[in-house]
Predict the 3D structure of the following.
Amino acid sequence: MQFRKIIHYNWLMAMDKKKIAIKDKLEVQRLIKVVDFDLSKNITRPHKHNGYLELVFLSSTSGNHIIDGRESIIETPCLLIIQKDNVHHWELVNPVKGFVLLIKDAFVSQSLDLEINRLVNTICRYDTIYFDKPDIFENLLRILAVEDNKICQEGLFKAFLAKVLEYKASSKQAKSTQQNLYDRFCDLLNKEIRVVNHVAYYASQLNTSPQNLSANCKTNADLTASQVLAGYIIKEAKRLLFYTANSISEVAFDLGFSDKSNFSKYFKRYAGMTPSEFKKQEN
């Protein structure tokens, strides 16, 4: 009987090694969190994260990082970008100096700042981004680590992403026009005074076809052009409903809907609730 127990235990251990561990470093109620790098975690086994994006800023260490089979040699200062579906592990040399930034999807989706979503989608195209100087990133992360005000958190997070991508844009690895199509689409949506609920309109503005625009959005953001556009329309609708005294009918008209009913159906389809329910929830 004891022998059978030992065999069963060994079988369970073997099965456990075949599974990919899923780690969760964020409390249920927290949507964003910044902590100093834990020196005991300098060597990890392959694992995934439970529904959050992890950005690891390293200002001092060496080693390597493997993410979905792609190996990066650590040269500090740098930023490691680990998406929620990635399997990764690293071997870093102690002492490791840096910060770990964890962001849940809800932090991005609940923000009324459209630019944050675009910046997150853009930074997720990379595994590693290298820098010349760490100071500005360390300062932003130190402040963000102790900030509880959601609006301030969004501002600091947005500034951090923007500075990271500013370094990437000025590096020798430039993107082609085709790769920039998604960014140009998002920039156009941000600059438009009034959002037009037609992908063909924006494709024309960008001198491409709706099909090509949608394929590029799918590649860069895993969303169709219609879904990207819907995200902007819903964000703008939420802004108008939350920040202005406009009625739902007036908001519908401002966003180009023929009537309140069509707008309400569209809003519920993408936001999961009616405009009236959203107003009550926010109030």
Notes: The two ends are 64 Å apart (CA to CA). The chain is about 50% helix and 20% strand. The mean pLDDT is 84. Strands lie at 21-23, 32-36, 47-49, 52-60, 62-67, 70-75, 78-82, 88-92, 97-104, 128-130.
